[in-house]
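Researcher: For the record, we're logging two predictions in this thread. I'll number them. Prediction 1 follows.
Model: Prediction 1, sequence and structure:
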Amino acid sequence: MGKFKKGGSKELPEISTASLPDIVFMLLFFFMVSTTMREVELNVDVMVPTAKEIVKLEKKDLVSNIYVGVPMRQFAKTMGTEPQIQLNDQFASVDEIQAFISTEREARKEELRNKLTTSLKVDQYTKMGIIIDIKQELRKASSLKLNYSTRETAE
């Protein structure tokens, strides 16, 4: 029978790094696929008001955003310092809201069109007159699901 050595000092083998590049590329690919880029570049400063009772929207792909706020510095010379409406990536007037809502509906599948929610992201210092005008246009466009974006109050 063979003789077994006991208590021999064995050295631990080095860890193989051959699979390390595969793991790195797999992680890189995962983050590239799962990350979404911002679809709209904001041209207005929007600091949404705070609230205590907040409910998060479940399906964000069924939300159309309307931004209202003071134009950023680079647009202040052309647009002024009064609050402006931004639809997608460009400034708009109140009259263009109905067309915006209809194009947003057309971009969705037919069975999802009645579930479309309009989210108002309005600067906290914006006067209520422009909000009332926007709401009137949304009523004319039959967009009755409305959401006001807020941030949670820090306690």
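Researcher: Logged. Prediction 2.
Model: Prediction 2, sequence and structure:
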Amino acid sequence: MKFFLKVHQCSMRFDALLDRWGYSLVGLLVRGFVGWQFFKSGLVKVQDWESTLSLFREEYNVPLLPPEIAAVLGAGGELVLPIFLLLGLFSRPVAMGLLAVNLMAVVSYPQLWSFECPAAINDHFYWGILLLILFAKGVGEFSLDSVLQKRFKIPTTA
């Protein structure tokens, strides 16, 4: 009986830890996962800038922007925003910025919709959903936003 009581006590402590840190840990993992997807894409773009420019001129149909500016904004967003996301700094605006980059990729590259394998477009949907969750719920305790909020005694809105 003592064994089951100890197991129950450990379970209750674990539940308390999850209540306190569970979302923060999941949020950190999601931030790392989604940020890495965008960061990798940005690295590919800057590694061969001429090919990137060629893609933006010939393949991608970014509305309202010249291809050169769209390429700089796209690559810059994919390289800078994930760093802020991982650090948890300006998390909600950064999540919306990456969502905009994601949406622009889906809108400007119609071939995503015609591939036989739906994985490419599905990835964009999954990333978008994860970014929306981060925007709506915040990124949790493991973030610079949380540290700054506590340091400067900024009231929470929730």
